[in-house]
Write a structure and sequence with these properties.
By secondary structure, this protein is of the alpha/beta class. It folds into two domains: about 170 residues, FAD/NAD(P)-binding domain; about 150 residues, FAD/NAD(P)-binding domain (3-Layer(bba) Sandwich), CATH 3.50.50. Helix content is about 25%, strand content about 30%. The protein has seven helices and 20 strands. It has a five-stranded parallel beta sheet with strand order 5-2-1-9-20, covered by helices on one side. The longest helix has 20 residues. The two termini are about 15 Å apart. Bound molecules: iron/sulfur cluster (SF4). The site of iron/sulfur cluster has 14 residues, from β12 and α4.
Protein backbone atom coordinates (compact mmCIF):
# COMPACT_ATOMS: atom_id res chain seq x y z
CA UNK A 1 0.00 0.00 0.00
CA UNK A 2 1.31 3.47 -0.90
CA UNK A 3 2.50 5.35 2.14
CA UNK A 4 1.26 8.81 2.98
CA UNK A 5 3.57 11.74 3.63
CA UNK A 6 2.47 15.17 4.81
CA UNK A 7 4.60 18.14 3.79
CA UNK A 8 3.73 21.28 5.75
CA UNK A 9 4.63 24.50 3.91
CA UNK A 10 4.28 25.13 0.16
CA UNK A 11 7.41 27.24 -0.38
CA UNK A 12 10.42 26.09 -2.44
CA UNK A 13 11.47 23.39 0.08
CA UNK A 14 7.95 21.95 0.29
CA UNK A 15 7.52 21.97 -3.48
CA UNK A 16 10.89 20.35 -4.20
CA UNK A 17 10.42 17.65 -1.54
CA UNK A 18 6.85 16.94 -2.71
CA UNK A 19 8.08 16.47 -6.28
CA UNK A 20 10.83 14.06 -5.19
CA UNK A 21 8.59 12.04 -2.87
CA UNK A 22 5.80 11.90 -5.45
CA UNK A 23 8.29 10.58 -8.02
CA UNK A 24 9.29 7.87 -5.52
CA UNK A 25 5.69 6.65 -5.48
CA UNK A 26 4.45 8.06 -2.17
CA UNK A 27 1.11 9.75 -1.69
CA UNK A 28 2.08 13.29 -0.79
CA UNK A 29 -0.19 15.86 0.85
CA UNK A 30 1.26 19.36 0.57
CA UNK A 31 -0.35 21.68 3.14
CA UNK A 32 -0.16 25.45 2.60
CA UNK A 33 -1.89 28.06 4.72
CA UNK A 34 -1.87 30.76 1.99
CA UNK A 35 -3.98 30.71 -1.15
CA UNK A 36 -0.90 30.31 -3.36
CA UNK A 37 2.26 28.24 -3.52
CA UNK A 38 5.84 29.49 -3.43
CA UNK A 39 6.15 31.31 -0.10
CA UNK A 40 8.49 34.29 -0.33
CA UNK A 41 9.74 33.16 -3.74
CA UNK A 42 6.30 34.01 -5.15
CA UNK A 43 6.74 37.58 -3.92
CA UNK A 44 10.24 38.07 -5.31
CA UNK A 45 11.01 39.55 -8.73
CA UNK A 46 14.60 38.52 -9.41
CA UNK A 47 17.16 36.30 -7.72
CA UNK A 48 20.76 36.97 -6.71
CA UNK A 49 23.49 36.71 -7.86
CA UNK A 50 22.45 36.19 -11.50
CA UNK A 51 19.45 38.53 -11.51
CA UNK A 52 17.35 35.80 -13.17
CA UNK A 53 13.58 36.17 -12.74
CA UNK A 54 12.04 34.24 -9.84
CA UNK A 55 8.79 33.38 -11.61
CA UNK A 56 10.12 30.65 -14.00
CA UNK A 57 11.99 29.02 -11.09
CA UNK A 58 8.77 28.81 -9.10
CA UNK A 59 6.80 27.64 -12.13
CA UNK A 60 9.38 24.86 -12.65
CA UNK A 61 9.08 23.73 -9.03
CA UNK A 62 5.28 23.66 -9.16
CA UNK A 63 5.24 21.81 -12.49
CA UNK A 64 7.22 18.90 -11.02
CA UNK A 65 4.85 18.18 -8.13
CA UNK A 66 3.04 15.53 -10.23
CA UNK A 67 0.13 13.93 -8.40
CA UNK A 68 0.87 15.66 -5.07
CA UNK A 69 -2.39 16.54 -3.32
CA UNK A 70 -2.08 20.28 -2.80
CA UNK A 71 -4.18 21.66 0.05
CA UNK A 72 -4.23 25.47 -0.07
CA UNK A 73 -5.70 27.79 2.55
CA UNK A 74 -5.24 25.03 5.09
CA UNK A 75 -3.95 25.89 8.54
CA UNK A 76 -2.78 23.05 10.72
CA UNK A 77 -5.19 22.72 13.66
CA UNK A 78 -3.68 19.65 15.30
CA UNK A 79 -0.71 17.41 14.61
CA UNK A 80 -0.06 14.42 16.83
CA UNK A 81 1.39 10.93 16.96
CA UNK A 82 -0.85 7.95 16.45
CA UNK A 83 1.40 4.99 17.26
CA UNK A 84 4.10 5.14 14.60
CA UNK A 85 1.97 7.37 12.37
CA UNK A 86 0.88 11.01 12.50
CA UNK A 87 -2.59 12.49 12.36
CA UNK A 88 -3.07 16.02 11.08
CA UNK A 89 -6.28 18.01 11.03
CA UNK A 90 -6.65 21.17 8.96
CA UNK A 91 -8.78 24.30 9.15
CA UNK A 92 -10.54 23.15 5.95
CA UNK A 93 -11.98 20.18 7.86
CA UNK A 94 -9.68 17.67 6.11
CA UNK A 95 -7.72 15.25 8.26
CA UNK A 96 -4.98 12.89 7.09
CA UNK A 97 -3.06 10.02 8.65
CA UNK A 98 0.53 9.80 7.45
CA UNK A 99 3.61 7.66 7.90
CA UNK A 100 6.01 10.63 7.88
CA UNK A 101 5.83 14.40 8.17
CA UNK A 102 8.17 16.97 6.68
CA UNK A 103 8.14 20.51 8.07
CA UNK A 104 9.08 23.10 5.44
CA UNK A 105 7.51 26.04 7.19
CA UNK A 106 10.14 28.56 6.06
CA UNK A 107 10.62 31.95 7.68
CA UNK A 108 8.86 35.26 8.36
CA UNK A 109 10.33 38.57 7.29
CA UNK A 110 11.21 40.86 10.20
CA UNK A 111 8.52 43.48 10.74
CA UNK A 112 10.52 46.65 9.94
CA UNK A 113 8.04 48.90 11.75
CA UNK A 114 9.46 47.48 15.00
CA UNK A 115 12.63 49.51 14.36
CA UNK A 116 10.85 52.80 14.89
CA UNK A 117 14.02 54.85 14.43
CA UNK A 118 13.97 53.97 10.71
CA UNK A 119 10.44 55.28 10.25
CA UNK A 120 8.88 52.41 8.30
CA UNK A 121 5.12 52.93 8.23
CA UNK A 122 5.69 56.47 9.59
CA UNK A 123 7.56 58.32 6.83
CA UNK A 124 6.32 58.31 3.24
CA UNK A 125 9.49 57.17 1.50
CA UNK A 126 10.73 54.32 3.66
CA UNK A 127 10.22 50.83 2.19
CA UNK A 128 11.59 47.31 2.72
CA UNK A 129 13.42 44.83 0.49
CA UNK A 130 10.09 42.99 0.02
CA UNK A 131 8.41 46.25 -1.08
CA UNK A 132 11.16 46.78 -3.67
CA UNK A 133 10.56 43.29 -5.10
CA UNK A 134 6.84 43.98 -5.23
CA UNK A 135 7.53 47.32 -6.97
CA UNK A 136 9.69 45.60 -9.58
CA UNK A 137 7.00 42.95 -10.15
CA UNK A 138 4.07 45.33 -10.41
CA UNK A 139 5.67 48.67 -11.32
CA UNK A 140 3.51 50.28 -8.66
CA UNK A 141 4.36 51.88 -5.33
CA UNK A 142 3.40 55.47 -4.57
CA UNK A 143 6.33 55.69 -2.12
CA UNK A 144 8.84 55.24 -4.98
CA UNK A 145 8.64 58.36 -7.08
CA UNK A 146 11.66 58.78 -9.35
CA UNK A 147 14.13 59.04 -6.45
CA UNK A 148 17.46 60.77 -7.02
CA UNK A 149 19.11 59.76 -3.73
CA UNK A 150 18.52 56.27 -2.41
CA UNK A 151 19.83 54.72 0.82
CA UNK A 152 19.82 51.00 1.63
CA UNK A 153 20.18 49.92 5.26
CA UNK A 154 21.59 46.44 5.92
CA UNK A 155 20.89 44.22 8.97
CA UNK A 156 17.40 45.51 9.82
CA UNK A 157 16.17 43.19 12.58
CA UNK A 158 19.26 40.95 12.29
CA UNK A 159 22.45 40.98 14.37
CA UNK A 160 20.51 43.16 16.73
CA UNK A 161 19.95 42.13 20.37
CA UNK A 162 17.39 44.89 20.84
CA UNK A 163 15.32 43.52 17.97
CA UNK A 164 15.53 40.06 19.57
CA UNK A 165 17.73 38.55 16.87
CA UNK A 166 21.46 37.99 17.27
CA UNK A 167 21.96 35.98 14.11
CA UNK A 168 22.84 37.11 10.61
CA UNK A 169 20.08 36.51 8.08
CA UNK A 170 22.64 35.43 5.49
CA UNK A 171 20.82 36.50 2.33
CA UNK A 172 20.21 40.22 2.82
CA UNK A 173 23.69 41.52 1.93
CA UNK A 174 23.40 39.90 -1.49
CA UNK A 175 19.78 41.10 -1.78
CA UNK A 176 20.88 44.65 -0.92
CA UNK A 177 23.63 44.66 -3.55
CA UNK A 178 21.28 43.16 -6.15
CA UNK A 179 18.56 45.73 -5.39
CA UNK A 180 21.13 48.57 -5.40
CA UNK A 181 22.09 47.60 -8.98
CA UNK A 182 18.45 47.22 -10.01
CA UNK A 183 17.47 50.60 -8.56
CA UNK A 184 20.41 52.24 -10.28
CA UNK A 185 19.41 50.60 -13.58
CA UNK A 186 15.82 51.81 -13.12
CA UNK A 187 16.80 55.32 -11.98
CA UNK A 188 20.17 55.97 -13.72
CA UNK A 189 20.50 59.50 -12.33
CA UNK A 190 20.12 58.36 -8.73
CA UNK A 191 22.95 58.15 -6.21
CA UNK A 192 22.68 54.87 -4.32
CA UNK A 193 24.28 54.33 -0.89
CA UNK A 194 24.49 51.04 1.03
CA UNK A 195 24.95 51.40 4.81
CA UNK A 196 26.42 48.12 6.06
CA UNK A 197 28.10 46.64 9.15
CA UNK A 198 29.97 43.88 7.27
CA UNK A 199 29.37 42.68 3.77
CA UNK A 200 28.69 38.96 3.82
CA UNK A 201 29.03 38.10 0.14
CA UNK A 202 30.00 34.47 0.73
CA UNK A 203 28.50 32.58 -2.22
CA UNK A 204 29.70 31.80 -5.69
CA UNK A 205 29.33 34.88 -7.88
CA UNK A 206 28.40 37.16 -4.99
CA UNK A 207 31.75 38.98 -4.87
CA UNK A 208 31.47 39.62 -8.62
CA UNK A 209 28.04 41.16 -8.01
CA UNK A 210 29.59 43.43 -5.36
CA UNK A 211 32.33 44.55 -7.75
CA UNK A 212 29.78 45.12 -10.49
CA UNK A 213 27.69 47.26 -8.12
CA UNK A 214 30.70 49.50 -7.49
CA UNK A 215 32.30 49.59 -10.93
CA UNK A 216 29.34 49.38 -13.31
CA UNK A 217 26.62 51.02 -11.24
CA UNK A 218 28.64 53.34 -9.00
CA UNK A 219 26.89 52.20 -5.82
CA UNK A 220 28.61 53.72 -2.77
CA UNK A 221 29.21 51.45 0.20
CA UNK A 222 29.41 53.14 3.59
CA UNK A 223 30.48 51.07 6.57
CA UNK A 224 28.32 52.24 9.44
CA UNK A 225 24.96 51.84 11.11
CA UNK A 226 22.21 54.36 10.50
CA UNK A 227 21.33 55.83 13.88
CA UNK A 228 18.40 58.07 13.06
CA UNK A 229 16.01 58.90 10.23
CA UNK A 230 13.77 61.95 10.15
CA UNK A 231 11.46 63.48 7.59
CA UNK A 232 11.58 67.09 6.46
CA UNK A 233 8.57 69.18 5.49
CA UNK A 234 9.19 68.48 1.79
CA UNK A 235 9.07 64.71 2.61
CA UNK A 236 12.77 64.13 1.95
CA UNK A 237 14.52 61.99 4.52
CA UNK A 238 17.43 63.05 6.67
CA UNK A 239 19.62 60.11 7.63
CA UNK A 240 22.27 60.23 10.35
CA UNK A 241 24.99 57.60 10.33
CA UNK A 242 28.62 57.17 11.19
CA UNK A 243 31.23 56.13 8.66
CA UNK A 244 33.08 53.74 10.96
CA UNK A 245 36.02 53.37 8.55
CA UNK A 246 36.87 57.07 8.75
CA UNK A 247 35.12 57.71 12.12
CA UNK A 248 33.17 60.53 10.52
CA UNK A 249 29.56 61.36 11.39
CA UNK A 250 27.42 61.61 8.27
CA UNK A 251 24.18 63.37 7.43
CA UNK A 252 22.60 62.40 4.10
CA UNK A 253 19.40 63.64 2.48
CA UNK A 254 17.49 60.92 0.66
CA UNK A 255 14.36 60.51 -1.45
CA UNK A 256 14.01 56.80 -0.69
CA UNK A 257 15.23 54.56 2.12
CA UNK A 258 15.18 50.77 1.67
CA UNK A 259 15.37 48.58 4.80
CA UNK A 260 16.85 45.10 4.46
CA UNK A 261 14.44 43.26 6.74
CA UNK A 262 15.99 40.00 7.89
CA UNK A 263 14.65 36.49 8.37
CA UNK A 264 12.82 35.51 11.53
CA UNK A 265 11.54 32.09 12.59
CA UNK A 266 8.13 31.37 11.13
CA UNK A 267 5.37 31.89 13.70
CA UNK A 268 3.16 29.27 12.10
CA UNK A 269 6.11 26.83 11.99
CA UNK A 270 6.73 27.33 15.71
CA UNK A 271 3.03 26.70 16.37
CA UNK A 272 3.11 23.40 14.49
CA UNK A 273 6.37 22.41 16.25
CA UNK A 274 4.71 22.99 19.62
CA UNK A 275 1.79 20.73 18.65
CA UNK A 276 4.17 17.83 18.00
CA UNK A 277 6.54 18.76 20.86
CA UNK A 278 9.48 19.51 18.61
CA UNK A 279 11.94 21.81 20.35
CA UNK A 280 13.06 25.13 18.98
CA UNK A 281 16.50 26.61 19.63
CA UNK A 282 17.24 29.77 21.60
CA UNK A 283 17.02 31.60 18.26
CA UNK A 284 13.47 30.33 17.69
CA UNK A 285 14.26 28.11 14.68
CA UNK A 286 13.26 24.41 14.72
CA UNK A 287 15.78 22.05 16.31
CA UNK A 288 17.44 19.31 14.28
CA UNK A 289 18.72 15.92 15.43
CA UNK A 290 22.35 16.84 14.76
CA UNK A 291 23.76 20.09 13.40
CA UNK A 292 26.47 18.30 11.39
CA UNK A 293 25.13 14.97 10.18
CA UNK A 294 21.42 15.10 10.91
CA UNK A 295 20.24 18.45 9.58
CA UNK A 296 17.05 17.02 8.05
CA UNK A 297 16.12 14.69 10.92
CA UNK A 298 14.56 15.60 14.25
CA UNK A 299 14.57 13.76 17.56
CA UNK A 300 11.03 12.55 16.73
CA UNK A 301 11.03 9.41 14.53
CA UNK A 302 9.22 10.08 11.24
CA UNK A 303 9.38 13.87 11.59
CA UNK A 304 11.77 15.69 9.24
CA UNK A 305 12.70 19.30 8.47
CA UNK A 306 14.10 21.21 5.49
CA UNK A 307 14.78 24.79 4.40
CA UNK A 308 14.65 28.03 6.34
CA UNK A 309 12.51 26.47 9.09
CA UNK A 310 15.83 25.59 10.76
CA UNK A 311 17.65 28.87 10.05
CA UNK A 312 18.40 31.36 7.27
CA UNK A 313 19.15 29.67 3.93
CA UNK A 314 19.67 30.69 0.34
CA UNK A 315 17.34 29.25 -2.31
CA UNK A 316 19.87 26.64 -3.59
CA UNK A 317 20.58 25.54 0.00
CA UNK A 318 16.85 25.23 0.64
CA UNK A 319 16.35 23.07 -2.44
CA UNK A 320 19.36 20.89 -1.58
CA UNK A 321 17.95 20.33 1.92
CA UNK A 322 14.57 19.40 0.46
CA UNK A 323 16.22 16.75 -1.72
CA UNK A 324 18.24 15.45 1.24
CA UNK A 325 15.09 15.27 3.38
CA UNK A 326 13.27 13.32 0.65
CA UNK A 327 16.07 10.76 0.49
CA UNK A 328 16.05 10.45 4.28
CA UNK A 329 12.27 9.98 4.39
CA UNK A 330 12.56 7.30 1.70
CA UNK A 331 15.19 5.46 3.79
CA UNK A 332 13.04 5.81 6.90
CA UNK A 333 9.92 4.44 5.22
CA UNK A 334 11.82 1.54 3.69
CA UNK A 335 12.96 0.69 7.22
S1 LIG B 1 23.45 39.05 5.39
FE1 LIG B 1 24.34 41.11 5.59
S2 LIG B 1 22.53 42.44 5.83
FE2 LIG B 1 21.87 40.37 6.28
S3 LIG B 1 22.04 40.20 8.49
FE3 LIG B 1 23.93 39.35 7.58
S4 LIG B 1 25.38 41.05 7.56
FE4 LIG B 1 23.31 41.91 7.87
Amino acid sequence: MAKNIIVIGGGPAGLEASARLDALGYTVFLVERDNHLGGHLALWDRLFPSGDPAEPVLRGLVSKTGSTKILLESEVQTLNRLGKSFRISLSSGVSVIADAVLLTTGFDLFDASKKEEYGYGIYDHVVTNADIESYFRTGKDPRIDNPERIGIVHCVGSRDEKAGCRNCSKVCCATAVKQACELKAKFPKAKVYCFYMDLRMFGRGYEDLYLKAQKEYGVRFIRGRVSEVSEKIDKTLQVKAEDTLSSTPLKVSLDLLVLMAGMRPSKSGSKVAKMIRLDTGEDGYLSVADGFTGMQATTIPGLFVAGAATGPKTLPETLAEARAASALIHDYLKG
